Every structure is written in C-alpha cells, then in structure tokens.
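Example record for the data management plan.
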Amino acid sequence: MRLSPKETLTEQEIKTGLKYVIGDGLATEAMNTLTGGAFMVAFALLLGANNFEIGLLAALPTLVNVFQLISIWLVRRYNNRRAISVICSLLARTPLIMIGCLPLMGGVTTIEPVIFFLFFYYLFGSIAGPSWNAWMKDLVPESLLGSYFARRARNMQLLNVLLSLTLALSIDYVKDHFPQYELTTYAVMFISAGLAGVIGAIVLSKAPEPRSTLTNGNIFRLLAKPLKDANFRKLLMFNSAWIFAFNLATPFFNVFMMKTLGISLSYIIGLTILSQLASIFTVRMWGVFSDRYSNKTILAICAPLYILVLIGWCFVGIYSRFYVNLALLVLIFIASGIATAGINLSLTNIGLKLATRNESIVYLSAKNIVTSVFSSLAPLVGGLLADYFTSRKIVINIEYTGPKINKVLHLISLHEWNFLFLIGAVLAFISLEFLVRVKETGEVERDEVMRVMRSSIRNNLKDYFLIGQLIGWQEQLWGIFRRTLHPERYPEKKKNRKVNIPAENNDPPEQS
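Corresponding structural encoding:
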C-alpha cells in the first residue's frame, strides 16, 4: 500500500480520487449507522446505562479532540496526511470489532467495557480527522466544495435510510420473538460496523494526496496563530456557542422517545428516515446556495429553523394520544433534516474556507479542539440537568367548564427532557448573535439573498419565501428586545420609505 504524496495531481487523478473519497464515505456511513444514533442508545439502555452515561457516550467523540495535537505533530514530522488518515482510521475501527466480540464471549453485561473501547475508537478517529480535513482541502477544488460535499452527503444519507430501516425492523422482530438474542444482534452489528470501517479505510488509501508544506515552529505557537486571526476567532465563538446548545439537547431525543414516550425502535428509525429524506432533498439546494452566496448565509437560514425544532420538542408528549404526538414528531423530524443538512454542510465548508492553505491543518485542529470543549461538556451537563429536572414540572392549562362540556387544553407541560430542550433553544438563539460578526470571502449581503428568494414567489417557489423570512426573524426579535430596554437609542423610523420592487423574472445572480 503506497501512501506517499505527489508534487502535482492531474485532473484525472483528482476526479478518480474524489470517487474514492465518496466510497470511503459510504463505508463510514454504514459503520456509523450500525453503531450510532438510536441503535447506540438502545444498546446502552439494554445494558442499563443512566442519563449521565448516555451523556458521556455522546460526549466521547469530542472529548478526545484535544489529541488532535498529535495529528499536527505527525503531519509536521512526516508530511504525509494520507498515511496518517488511513493508518489511524484502521486503528480506530478495530475496537468496534472488539466490542462486538465481548457479548459473544459472555464478557459484557454493563456499559463500562463499551465506553472503554469506544474511547479508543474516538481517540484514533480524532487523530485521523484533522489530517483528512487538510487533505480534502487540497484535493477538492474550492469552487466545488459545496456541491461535492453535498453530493457525498446525499449518497451517504441514502445508504443510511436503507440500512437504518432494515436494522430497525430486524431488531424489533428479534426483540418481540427472540428476546434472548437481542444482545447478540447488537454484537453482530458492531462487528459488521468494524469490518465496513476497515474496508472504507482501504478504499480511502487509493485517493491521491498533493504534497503540502506546514510552517515550522512550536506546536502551541502554531495553534495560537489561528486564535490571533480576528475573523477566525469570531467563527470559533459562534461554533462553540452553537455546538454547546446543539449537544445539550440533541443526544437525548432518542432517550426521550424510548423511555418517556415508549416508542418502538422501528418508529424512531422511521422518523429518522424522514429526517434523512428531508436532508437528501435539500442538501443539494444548500450546496448550490453555499457556492453561489456564502456558507454564512445558509447558517443564517438553517440555524433559526433548528431553534424552532428544539422548541417543538417541548410540546411533544403533552397529549396522551399517540398519533397526535406522532404527527408532531413527523413535522419536527422533517424540519430537523432540512436544517441540519444546511448547518453541517456550512460549518464544514466555512471552516475549510477561512483556513489558510499551508496552515489548514493548524486552523482546523484549533477549531476542533476549542469547539470540542463545549461539545463534550454539553451532553454531560445535559445528563445532569435531566436528572435534576426529573422531579420538577411546570404545567400550564386552559380549562373550560360548562353545563355540558368540560374541556382542558394543555398549553405547556415541561418536565425532565422538555426543560432540557427549552434551555437548548434559548442558548442556540443567543449563539446566533456571534454569527453576525463572522466575515466570509464572497459573502452576499443578507438583504440581497432575501430579495432574491422572496422574488421567487412569482415563479411559484413559495418555500424560498419561507426561507427568506427565517433569515430575518432572529434579528427582528433581538431588535424588539433592544428597543424595549433602550428606547432612547432606537428612535422611531419614518414609515414612508421607498421600496424597490424586483423585476418579474429575477433569477439568482451568478457569482463572479
């Protein structure tokens, strides 16, 4: 296996390499689907994990990101990002096979051994990550970043949909008819995930790497350099605040549905598939808008939408009827898929875009290390908050009493998880203030994007009108707060302002 980089790559080598990267993405997605999300939560609950241990499982992927310093040292020492990515990926995926072997040998009855091996899985994956990101920055043409990674994400999500549904139906069948083999089923899933991951690493090794240089100097001084970049520092502030709010609540959605609502794994995976389909149908649109406008613009659209998703979770479970809650969950998962597709794509691309070419691994590692502190802390805090709010509750009802009808309408019922979701929504809303300060090359003014999207109504694209409204609602709400607290600073504006009406056929302008 030859893993040395090349001085220059031909156009054909780049095209072939991009196909291998997609192949590795599909294998990695299969590995993540088999061992992540609802399946990991169900496996942990089967082993008796408590709320804090669930939070620890969610925190592990980012808790080990401080070891990305090793990745920087290895790249500087050997200047071979492909070798580091491939070898560390192979080392990372082996522990999954070990986890799968434990139940078959009768060696696991609690969650602690699983957490132990998962630590090494995430550790080596953390070391592989920065070198992979820096490698991709040089391999993928910058003009295609949005569309390429959108296509890669779409293919991965399609595989996730098919595999998740098959696994959920199989697990529920085993659980109902052969409960004694439920743990064995998860063991087979982990072994299969490890093998898929190894295959993916072998496929990735075939993608070429253009040679790069890294500035010499002390590692800690190198990591301090991105922190001196004012614009990159603003991105770190937003990313850290957002990821804390996101991870405070998101890891506990599946726990809430399984433990509180009693929803079966098949329903949960079905809802997850709805979310994936929503992502698949919209990620290409976000990729196009990302290349045409900016990643910051996409974040300004998708982040407020995800805040509405968090607020929506506060109303799940208010009514006892299963299908009422299911209908609300359907809407929440669809909106979540649309929002997270844009958020994940934009956060990845904007980090790649703001990083300088020769020091991209330093910038990206600094970003990952800083945000990992907040990302890993959030689910741990979330688990503790869930325990704290277990014995606390807020209920607000409207009650009507008459001669023939007595009706109680539940408005708000906050308890345990709902408190957590509401706190996450408030913190996510506050984090959007940091996004405004980030400057991105080629950024199109928000008002221009709103004008383009809203004018598309005349072409029957009403969904873009909704998107245009989502861009501005957060700033409008903050404006209300500011005018209320400091009326002397915000005098009334004249209402007879001139408004420019866009042309009848106003297609989005091409970015020069």
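Summary line stored alongside the record: Confidence is low (pLDDT under 50) at residues 456-468, 493-512.
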